[in-house]
Amino acid sequence: MFIKQLYTGCLSEAAYYIESNREAAVIDPLRDIDEYLELANERKANIKYIFETHFHADFVSGHLDLSRVTDAAIVFGPGTETKFPVHIAKDGETFKIGSLTIEVLHTPGHTLESSCYLLKDENGKNHCVFTGDTLFVGDVGRPDLAQKQDETTMTDLAGMMYDSLQKKILPLADEVIIYPAHGPGSACGKNLGPETFSTLGEEKKFNYALQQKTKNDFIQEVISGLESPPDYFPVNARINKEGYDNIDEIVKKGTKELSIEEFKNLIKQDAIVLDTRSTDVFSQGFIPSSINIGLEGRFAEWAGSLLRFDQDIVLITENGKEKESVIRLARVGFDKISGCLAGGVETWKNAGEEIDMIINVDADELAMDIPFDDKLIVLDVRKPNEFAEGHINKAINIPLTELTDPGKLAFINEDNNLYIHCTSGYRSVIAASLLKRQGIHNIHNVKGGWDQIRALEKVEITKEKSVLN
């Protein structure tokens, strides 16, 4: 028996490769499938099944492309409806992989078709369960994504999840390993723990949702405190149900080298310029109106939250990062990528084209300016819960996801000095690029963000609400 967790940190996503006697299965693959094919090839195994725990909303699955290449059957849980051929499993149905057995456990709650996959070893003993978004380390899946107006409410789904856990998961032995679809940072739960796997015994002890004594307690605890899901979630869920274009064609088109003339023509046709270089490099010089989302952070999530899926994208990347940029965009459903500027920003500079910059300042400089500059505004672009835990007195909190709305910025005047910060500096540079795109240029980005600011004794810290509230 061979099991490997293939974890992608920037998406907090875990896929799994299982193998026995040269037969393999993949659970919840990402759209870029090379890693699974290479692993099977190295181990001289054939991928027989592709198991999907549910219709994912936070990434585009690789089930279709992987099935095309391997002829593996795509398996979904009961009640699944798709626009492509799949095997819709029955609750309790079993599948053989070499000498191993996988049993389908239908566990509706996160979504209606959500299913877990119980793996039994060569002796028929329960070894582990792949829980998808039903049970995480320290959390459970959010029950608000599959609501259908008055037909199926969040409360209904939370109740289903309680029943699923009680009937299908909790009766298993404490030593059974829990392999979830996501780890810390995922928006598919409220507050996932720091580890990417656990045991059922550990979850019974420490998972807040499993501590609830009644069904009603569970429902109230699970539905409370949920932030709004990212805007791209419904888009990805639809793509996973309906199908998508082959990723190789998207990479071929997206990595096409564009001349300056071709690049400009695409911009004139309303293409977005997305610069995927690091925040430090981007700040030193970029093409005006570019949006910076650096590959070093949670790139795909922020792209999905801030960019439009119906608008062409042209790329500026670091040399050699063209393919990675396209693949990571495709993971969350961006297919309209029309190429990269050949030579990047250096080509643009050498042609004498205009360059913009972002002024970076240290937290010390902000602290010195606050008492003496009555035109100074501190814009904190962290999430509301982060802001509530502590922030600069009189700071204005507008989360990054809301900065694409010009109405949110009406309070800013031309003579204001705007100091922007997040936690560490990644989100604040994205924010600065969005504001510059909207014509706001008197901007200072606070390097190191809140991590540096809160260490300064000369800045007044508070937990009061934003002055805009």
Characterization of the model:
This protein is an alpha/beta fold. A six-stranded mixed β-sheet has the order 1-2-3-4-5-6, covered by helices on one side. A six-stranded mixed β-sheet has the order 7-8-9-10-13-14. A five-stranded parallel β-sheet has the order 15-19-18-16-17. Helix 15 (426-437) links the parallel strand 24 (417-421) and strand 25 (443-446). Helix 3 (154-169) crosses helix 5 and helix 7 packs across helix 11. The radius of gyration is 24 Å and the shape is globular. It starts with a strand and ends in a 7-residue tail after the last strand. The model has no long low-confidence stretch (mean pLDDT 95).
Strand order, sheet with most strands: 1-2-3-4-5-6
- What is the tally of helical segments? 16
Strand content: 15-25%
Low-pLDDT regions: none
DSSP E strands, number: 26
Largest sheet: 6 strands, mixed
Q: What is the CA–CA distance across the termini?
A: 57 Å
Taking all residues together, what is the mean pLDDT? 95
Shape: globular
Radius of gyration: 24 Å
Helix content: 25-40%
SS content category: alpha/beta
